[in-house]
Design brief:
Layout (H helix, E strand, L loop, with lengths): L4 H14 L4 H13 L1 H22 L6 H14 L1
Helix pairs in contact: 1-2, 1-3, 2-3
Amino acid sequence: MSGDPCDRCEELLQDFLDRTLTDAEWREAEGHLTGCDHCARRYRFEESLRRYVKTSAAERMPPGLMSKLDELRGLDATA
């Protein structure tokens, strides 16, 4: 493990977003995010990305897209 607080925050970020950290890890990550603009921007990006993926996953695919994806997967299997 690196001694760099930003590296440590990066290690904790996904679990922070998942809310699966211990209380001590939560305080560590939250404290760092409060004082580090770089990591706070990274957190906001990851949080936005998760919202986008969740929203996108709930939307229905246009007709024919699933068959096109299946076709492309079939091409990957033969490559």
